[in-house]
Design goal:
The protein is mostly helical. The chain has 7 helices and 2 strands. It has one domain. A two-stranded antiparallel ribbon has the order 1-2. Helix 2 packs antiparallel against helix 3, helix 2 packs parallel to helix 4 and helix 5 packs antiparallel against helix 6. Bound molecules: NADPH dihydro-nicotinamide-adenine-dinucleotide phosphate. NADPH dihydro-nicotinamide-adenine-dinucleotide phosphate binds next to helix 5, helix 6 and helix 7.
């Protein structure tokens, strides 16, 4: 099967437009909280099970990037295998394990949010998968460059922070509970959303490992989604819990 052909320059232009949409989305999300999790409400139309929505939102990007990178790909070198492998490992966890682990029984999210996340994932998956399939010419020596090695360290550290922090949040509830309490363990001593910090670090590391436009675009979109959400969560904690630690920041220790 052949992918529809797009020239390299047209591809870069499309990806640059997608980045511009990401920056606009960031500005919008600074004003409007994406209505899922603690901000879910019925004003956004029909709702769907939270766990099912997480699976449906996250599985497309895994399939598209996996297909683009691993199916009949003449550019599948060892560096590309590692890049796409790291990406697929993250999304295997996010689409299959994470929805099974979260304790959000009976909780729902708006279908429109799920659809916008699917769209976001389809576009990002397309850019990465298409790049890996058509333009990814990485030699073995790329794995010895400072950006690959630094990126790999940042990616692994980010994944560790993200998974440990999400696990702490998940365990704050007993099975069947749906309320919120103050997390204090691990990096929560310093910031309200270390899970989001870890996720942003992961994709910063990935952008360095790949050093291509789609990977930077993925990082920019992740920041566009998660930085406003971290700021909103921090404000929400301070309003909900009068005893919330005043020295804690939103997402970057001692800074933001
Ligand atoms: P949240 O921190 O809002 O929630 C994570 C989980 O923990 C949810 O199940 C939530 O329940 C629960 N939870 C959160 N805070 C508390 C608390 N104080 N007490 C009890 N339970 C709590 O994370 P998100 O939903 O924003 O994101 C989930 C994961 O997906 C993260 O790892 C994030 O990095 C990633 N993500 C990545 C994006 C990207 O662009 N790459 C975009 C969005 C998310 P509930 O749902 O009921 O609030």
């Amino acid at each position: 099967m052949n992918f529809p052909s797009v020239s390299y320059n047209s591809f870069l232009l499309l990806n640059a437009i997608w980045i511009a949409i990401g920056i606009i989305t960031f500005l919008v999300l600074l004003r409007i909280n994406a209505p899922y999790g603690r901000y879910t409400n019925r004003n956004w139309g029909p709702l769907i099970s939270n766990k099912l929505a997480w699976f449906l939102m996250e599985i497309p990007v895994l399939l598209i990037v996996g297909f683009g990178a691993f199916y009949n790909n003449e550019n599948l070198s060892i560096p590309v295998f590692i890049m796409a492998g790291l990406f697929c490992l993250h999304y295997l966890h996010r689409s299959l394990l994470f929805p099974l682990r979260i304790r959000t029984k009976g909780k729902q999210m708006p279908v429109v949010i799920m659809c916008s996340a699917i769209l976001f994932n389809l576009a990002n998956g397309f850019f990465l998968g298409y790049y890996f399939h058509n333009f990814a010419h990485y030699e073995y020596a790329w794995m010895l460059t400072p950006q690959f090695i630094t990126g790999l360290i940042i990616f692994i550290a980010g994944a560790f922070i993200n998974i440990v922090s999400d696990s702490i949040l998940i365990r704050l509830r007993k099975p069947g509970e749906a309320g919120y309490s103050i997390p204090n363990a691990f990096l929560f001593k310093w910031v309200s959303c270390p899970n989001h910090l870890g996720e942003m670090l992961e994709w910063l590391g990935f952008a360095l490992i790949c050093s291509n436009l789609p990977a930077w675009s993925f990082f920019i979109w992740t920041v566009a989604n998660l930085l406003p959400r971290s700021i909103a969560h921090h404000k929400w904690y301070k309003q909900k819990f009068p005893s919330y630690p005043s020295e804690r920041k939103a997402v970057i220790p001692y800074f933001l």
